[in-house]
Amino acid sequence: MRRHLNSTVPFNIAHLLHGVSAMLIVAVVFGAAVAATPERPNIVLIFTDDQGYGDVGCYGAEGFETPNMDRMAREGMRMTDFYVGCPVCSGSRTALLTGSHYARVSMAAVLFPNSRIGLHSDEVTIAEVLKPLGYATACIGKWHLGHQPKFLPTRQGFDYYYGVPYSNDMWIDPTATLADDVVLREGWTRQRIAAEKPPRNKVPLMRNEQVIEYPTDQALLTKRYTEQVQQFITEHRDEPFFVYLPHTMCHLPLFASDDFRGRTERGLFGDVIEELDWSVGQILDTLQKLNLDEKTLVIFTTDNGAAVGSSKPLRAKKASMYDGGIRVPCIVRWPGQVPAGAVCSEVAGTIDLLPTIAGLTGGAVPTDRQIDGSDIWPLLQGRDGAKSPHEAYVVVHGGRTAVRSGPWKFYPWPEGGDRRGRKPPPVQPGRPPVQLYDVTTDIGETNNVAKQHPDVVARLTQLAKAHQDDLKQNRRPAGQADP
User: Fold this and answer.
1) With b meaning 16 or more CB within 10 Å and e meaning fewer, what string describes 121-149?
2) Residues tagged active-site
3) In this structure, which of 64, 147, 312, 474 has its CB flanked by the most CB atoms within 10 Å?
């Protein structure tokens, strides 16, 4: 059963009431708020897979071109200090769609086709915030929050789903429901799927809750996803819509269509990125042709740091708690609302998108549970003096904690214990047992200044512990697969 959602008032007016008629003040403030609120936007959320900080032209990419992503930055805002909620797949998607850290909702960092958990039905996604407002909602792409029917997008607020239920290096669950007209390729039959051990790197394509193709032709996924998005936007152009486009690429194994294979000096990886950029351009062009440009908020970001691409100038890559694993490109475009050519260096993250979208649309943020994100619309609108809502942005993953607070990035563990399951080495004599970096002057996290700033270390140690304690005390369950 769904938990009740309550709408919240975005500001506190009690301090204004002294000596003035409450009715008059409420009327004036409410009227001002309505006048300042933009028209309820359409929303397109593009979420690529394993595309690192250095894999977008306007963030310094080399060896390929991303003119459409760069166009978004020229016509909107580029965020330089934007964080995901997990350095790998499922955890990151959980944080994006629920506004809550994945550990809080007991989600696995990565789900597999034999996993028995998924996103709990009581969790509220961005789609479920928007559905009561009359939005048409679609998830087109990689889901990876549970592949059993009870966990699929159609059970989490999306009217329509088309895509691959998990990462493209995985395999089919033999119990998956095959559509009557399923397209079976490469000699596969229903009997083989039921009887044989499924091979890796061959995954199903689904529509709503049925498999429509197996194994899917991965070289066509980016093209097919893009066409599906264009079609959905066109069909729903006369009503508000929310399209969530979590691309399968550029997760390994890599695939590009014939039109893009062999185009770049970076090889197949560069080809894949250029096709993803083409997809962005197709969507922007569709919005323009339908006169929806100024009615649509488009957000482009990625699920974690680079796997085979580049996280430069950041340290480390995917799966790491260093910035190269969890600090990602983010570009936001909404003509007339988000200032063109703006750059925002305030700390924000994917957990902030649900409350921000709720605030823009008048949607209800859940008030019966902990939501970790905050409304960052003042940042996106480029308001003078707008600051990050996060005193400390804390990520917990694989038994390790990382804290970003203002200029500081803090790790309450010594170097060498970054990867999941790897124990930190013994502290070497003369070296601090923790790590502290000023990432505004040392973006590559090369100079540990923990010894020089014991006061900062003490403060962030306390904040990290408080966050961990809060997760333990306010943890919600994951959904369990049916027996």
Assistant:
1) eebbbbbbbbbeeebbbbbbbbbbbbbbb
2) 89, 144
3) 147
